[in-house]
Amino acid sequence: MDNQEADVIVIGAGIAGLSTAARAAEQGLGVVLVEKMSAIGGSSAMSGGWFAFTGTQEQQDAGIEDSIELFRSDLRKVGGYRNNPALVEAYMDNQLQTYEWLRAKGVSFGEVEISSGQSAPRGHSTRIREVLQLLHEDFTANGGETLFDARVTALDRNADGRVTGVIINDDTQLNAVLGVVIASGGFSRSRELLSVFAPEQLSAIPYGGPGNTGDGLRMGWKLGAGMADMSSISGTYGSHPETTDEQQELLTSYYMGGIIVNTDARRFVDESVDYKTLGSAVLTQPQALAFQIFDAPVRAKSHRGIALKDMDTLEDLGHLPSADTLEELAGLVGIPADQLVGTVDKYNAAIRGGEADEVGRTHLCNGVGELQPIEVGPFYAYPAKTLMTTTYGGLTFTPQGKVTDVDGEVIDGLYAVGEVTGGFHGAAYMTGSSLGKGSVFGCVVADTLASSYVGAVNG
Ligand SMILES: Cc1cc2nc3c(=O)[nH]c(=O)nc-3n(C[C@H](O)[C@H](O)[C@H](O)COP(=O)(O)OP(=O)(O)OC[C@H]3O[C@@H](n4cnc5c(N)ncnc54)[C@H](O)[C@@H]3O)c2cc1C
């Protein structure tokens, strides 16, 4: 390291830290990005790459009708109206310019799809590793410095209580003139913190970046930071029980026309609700396991290489059993054949108007999309569990990204962005709103710091 002082220290090199760092460096601030692993990425690099934006070129090109009003009301609704309206509003105010900023950095957005918690297609797909690489290159080109294998182990505070820097690997002090930004991700890899805040999630499959052990949460906690949404932490349904860190296998065929049954071949939840709520519902079922059942027309909607929709790769991996009849399929995956046939018959009858749906389902996804009977073979059964990908509760913060304490007072000099924060999502999560929140609030925090710099220089 060239010197022991920076304008800004950013802890963690995922989407949140990289957005903050790149945006701050382009405005002339001296930024040191501190990453405990030997490479950038975190959970962001393992993610599906979906960003939630509205008013974009891609939506216009696809003729999608959406609006800020609908986006806001979807976010509030999926959050159970427990999310902080001021934070949702800050996202609304800044999301389009963040999208434009990412595009200006060279990010290209592909398909726009509807997904969990959305009532209009606004999930914008990206090649997320390329996005992270572009931001890191941009940061470095603007003079930013990155320290790898450098774990921040403590925050430094002066006598006035202002956060003035960090301690790295327990022995190196680094001071920050303007502020320290915690962008260290969640704690999906900490059994200890999960057992404190979300013990039921211990039976989900552990996932997310290996560095996501809640370091930033603990450091903020130690300084008296408030916390929000800790009681809403939930995994995502559904991923194959043998999924690996190298190949994430999340599939949401239920939003494309499938149903979900338990090991007794019975439905137990309205499949159109957000996949975090589904994640909690599946944890209550026998073996915490449920099968996504669908037929050939749903299988035909697969997008190879597109997260949540990629049945082709699952089939290549041998994780998507299929058969010409439902009876055979049930035999293959070891669930009762008579019951599976009965469950599907009942579902089809409800769609044809014969009777009410047994779990109250009326649409494919979040009130949108027409249900189709499951009747054209071959039939498929994807065995899937709840994946503990992300912990959306964390440090409380203002719409400018300043961390607040348990009394709601700003902790001077301390900022937070990304998955380490709480209050934005509320009860559950909309696809794309986490990468979105990392980049949107990353830009907001960087702008806040840049204006405080101008303020300091102008006296
Ligand atoms: C399988 C999967 C699929 C997902 N799909 C999507 C999706 O399509 N869309 C969406 O919006 N969200 C998705 N998510 C959630 C989303 O990816 C994360 O919430 C988001 O990427 C978090 O970004 P972040 O920058 O806050 O944290 P991270 O990307 O996890 O980055 C945090 C970084 O901080 C580092 N760090 C931690 N502690 C320290 C320390 N003490 N010192 C220094 N460095 C430290 C970590 O090593 C890590 O590199 C998905 C998550 C997973 C796991």
Structure description:
This is FAD-dependent oxidoreductase. GO terms for molecular function: steroid dehydrogenase activity, acting on the CH-CH group of donors. Residues 7-435 form the FAD-dependent oxidoreductase 2 FAD-binding domain. It comes from Corynebacterium hylobatis. InterPro entries: FAD-dep_OxRdtase_2_FAD-bd (IPR003953), FAD-oxidoreductase_2 (IPR050315), FAD/NAD-bd_sf (IPR036188), Succ_DH/fumarate_Rdtase_cat_sf (IPR027477). The protein has 14 helices and 19 strands. It has helices spanning 15-26, 42-46, 57-61, 68-78, 85-104, 128-141, 191-197, 215-222, 275-283, 296-299, 311-316, 326-333, 337-351, 433-457, and strands spanning 5-11, 31-34, 50-52, 112-113, 123-125, 145-147, 152-157, 163-168, 172-182, 205-206, 227-228, 236-239, 259-261, 290-294, 322-323, 379-388, 394-395, 402-404, 410-416. The protein has 459 residues and is of the alpha/beta class. The longest helix is centred in the last third of the chain and has 25 residues, at 433-457. Strand 7 (152-157) and strand 8 form a beta hairpin. It has two domains: 5-232 and 389-457, FAD/NAD(P)-binding domain (3-Layer(bba) Sandwich); 236-387, Alpha-Beta Complex (Flavocytochrome C3, Chain A, domain 1), CATH 3.90.700.10. It is elongated. 32% of the residues lie in helices and 19% in strands. Flavin-adenine dinucleotide binds at residues 11-17, 34-37, 41-44, 46-50, 151-152, 183-185, 207-209, 211-212, 215-216, 248, 307, 389-390, 418-419, 431-436, 438.
